[in-house]
Amino acid sequence: MGGGKIDVYMDIVSLYSYLAFLDLQRNSEILKQHNVEVEFHPVLLGAINAGSGNKPPWTLRAKAIYGAHDARRSIARFPGLVIQTPKDLMAVSKTIVPNRALHFIKSHHSPSTFLTALHYLMHLFWSPPNLNLTLPENVAKALLECPASFDSSSPSSSSTQDGGKKLFTKQQVEEIMKGVETPEVKEALKNATQEALDKGAFGNPWFWVTNKEGKGEPFFGSDRFHFIYKFLGLPFQDVTLLPPGGASKL
């Protein structure tokens, strides 16, 4: 039973990528039990929009109005999660530096370290006071302050876990920031973005899911996991309408 892989192409500037990440992380142990591998690939959403001919949803007034409702409902699925959209999202949307940093971390550190760093950077981007991660000095500061055990549902307690231990040393952060400027890391981000485009991406999060038979299909959005799990042949509970008086499960 089970088996397969979920490749996730995502940019920290994408709120729904953040929510998809949280969903996959809270189900990570069950996915492992089903022998399903999950890999996150930092990409540039702006380049995907440009390469696919897509435009940000807020450029269409009707989508922008609806988007506020959709975001509120989606965020509510994660109790304790505090989200605040940056005042000028476009001004902080060029996330080249943090995405390069993540590629360096992914290739030079453990998978758990990469996931913690990814989680923390998304938290800083989407939570008040919304750190501007387009600036290299802010990325370096964020990595230096990242708790070794980070939980976005309780960020204040994360800093005291493990005795306040940090994820990276000062020397490691300096190595990461130097790595951001290397041709290898620049190419890694470029290749990941192009790979997503080659697989049909027009937005984030973009999933390429391969089942145990080796067949692959694309999925888009943070609310498509029931389709993903069905494609992978995994047992799951779909949306079920209950009769009057039935006890709902949130």
Automatic annotation (TrEMBL):
GO terms for biological process: glutathione metabolic process. It comes from the Eukaryota. Signal peptide: none annotated. One of its GO terms (cellular component) is mitochondrion. InterPro entries: DSBA-like_thioredoxin_dom, GST_Kappa/NadH, Thioredoxin-like_sf. Pfam families: DSBA. GO terms for molecular function: glutathione peroxidase activity; glutathione transferase activity. Residues 6-120 form the DSBA-like thioredoxin domain. PANTHER family: GLUTATHIONE S-TRANSFERASE KAPPA (PTHR42943), GLUTATHIONE S-TRANSFERASE KAPPA-RELATED (PTHR42943:SF13). This is Thioredoxin-like protein. It comes from Sordaria brevicollis.
